[in-house]
């Protein structure tokens, strides 16, 4: 069960593109190009020991983002941490070696070095803060609102996006960061911590992914025009020589709007985006959920109804390894929120 001990000191963005035969990967200002074809990429964060990518693939994702679990791969803490500072010149030459090794693989996509000030060329240094807040209460985000954000990103020219998390989960044992911390990663994700489809979210997003994939060509090649149709409604047209695809977004959070666009009347609900793959007929609206809704009912354990039959014993817990970074005693009377990264 050691593999389920997760410490996210460093998150490695490692997309596994499902098209395994694709080998020429490059990019331009519009999108990632795989074997000469501009692609839009829908990705989701999954902890690889928790689930296979199958349900993500069925949900219309092209890629998964996954992690290196340092406590499994690096049993001695910070064995491979940021080496520049503590190792001085040796650290510097090691980083240079890494950069050259990565570059020599000539994979055609930019390399990014996270949290490494002064990263050597050809690395792209980004002051990325791998910040993670743990210990939140039960998060909830509606399928409609999530779909709105994703659709808006693509309306504005985005071509690669990732869900954090796509499959949530719980870390059993006191391994998430310390004492008194909630250990759920559920995040109200499209796949819940038991691996069940969180409906209607999973299905509503799948429909969005399918529509976005169907207009991949216009999204990645079309000339883009935007037009304000109303105080809160904006039309965005992606126009190629032979095809066009449109988005109609209504940013008013409370008021539905009727607009005329290209001679056709459209009803755009409050806080929603309609996607018109041919700029005429709406194929998807982020606020109209047609996916099946499922209700998961958490039932209390039967044993809790029969407390008399339970025998409680108490024993002290060995907490050396669970206390703050393995050091020192802690005493708190509240939930601890630990932030990773600096
Ligand atoms: C990969 O694609 C780029 C851009 O489409 C092209 O210039 C290059 O020759 C291709 N490389 C290989 C090995 O096919
Ligand atoms: C939404 O629309 C209503 C009615 O037109 C208007 O009163 C309100 O100010 C709008 N809200 C925003 C945030 O634009």
From TrEMBL:
Signal sequence region: 1-22
Main location: secreted
Domain of life of the organism encoding this protein: Eukaryota
Catalytic activity: Hydrolysis of terminal non-reducing beta-D-galactose residues in beta-D-galactosides
Enzyme class: hydrolase
Keywords: Apoplast, Glycosidase, Hydrolase, Signal
Keyword hit for Transcription regulation: no
GO biological process: carbohydrate metabolic process
Molecular-function GO terms, alphabetical: beta-galactosidase activity
Domain called Beta-galactosidase beta-sandwich: residue spans: 234-289
Residue span, Glycoside hydrolase 35 catalytic domain: 31-75, 140-210
Protein family according to the UniProt entry: Belongs to the glycosyl hydrolase 35 family.
GO cellular component: apoplast
Protein name from the UniProt record: beta-galactosidase
Pfam family, one: Glyco_hydro_35
Localization terms from the record: Secreted, Extracellular space, Apoplast
SUPFAM superfamilies in UniProt: (Trans)glycosidases
EC annotation from Swiss-Prot or TrEMBL: 3.2.1.23
Keyword Ribonucleoprotein tagged: no
């Amino acid at each position: 069960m050691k593999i389920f001990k997760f410490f996210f000191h460093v998150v490695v963005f490692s997309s596994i593109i499902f098209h395994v035969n694709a080998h020429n990967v490059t990019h331009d200002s519009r999108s990632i190009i795989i074997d000469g074809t501009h692609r839009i990429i829908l990705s989701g964060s999954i902890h690889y020991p928790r689930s296979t990518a199958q349900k993500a693939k069925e949900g219309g994702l092209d890629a998964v983002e996954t992690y290196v679990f340092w406590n499994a791969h690096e049993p001695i803490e910070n064995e491979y941490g940021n080496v520049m500072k503590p190792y001085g010149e040796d650290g510097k030459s090691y980083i240079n070696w890494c950069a050259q090794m990565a570059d020599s693989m000539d994979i055609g996509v930019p390399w990014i070095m996270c949290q490494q000030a002064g990263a050597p060329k050809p690395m792209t240094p980004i002051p990325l803060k791998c910040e993670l807040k743990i210990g939140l209460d039960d998060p909830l985000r509606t399928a409609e609102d999530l779909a709105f954000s994703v659709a808006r990103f693509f309306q504005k020219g985005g071509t690669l996006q990732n869900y954090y998390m796509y499959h949530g989960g719980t870390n059993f044992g006191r391994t998430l960061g310390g004492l008194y911390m909630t250990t759920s990663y559920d995040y109200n994700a499209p796949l819940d911590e038991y691996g069940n489809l969180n409906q209607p979210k999973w299905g509503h997003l799948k429909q969005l992914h399918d529509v976005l994939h169907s207009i991949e060509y216009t999204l990645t090649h079309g000339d883009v025009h935007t037009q304000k149709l109303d105080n809160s409604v904006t039309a965005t047209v992606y126009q190629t020589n032979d095809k066009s695809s449109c988005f109609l977004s209504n940013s008013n959070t409370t008021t539905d709007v009727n607009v005329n666009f290209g001679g056709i009347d459209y009803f755009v609900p409050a806080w929603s985006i309609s996607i018109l793959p041919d700029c005429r007929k709406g194929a998807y609206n982020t606020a109209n959920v047609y996916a099946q809704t499922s209700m998961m009912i958490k039932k209390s354990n039967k044993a809790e109804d029969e407390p008399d039959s339970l025998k409680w014993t108490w024993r002290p817990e060995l907490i050396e390894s669970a206390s703050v970074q393995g050091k020192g005693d802690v005493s708190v009377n509240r939930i601890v929120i630990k932030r990773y990264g600096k």
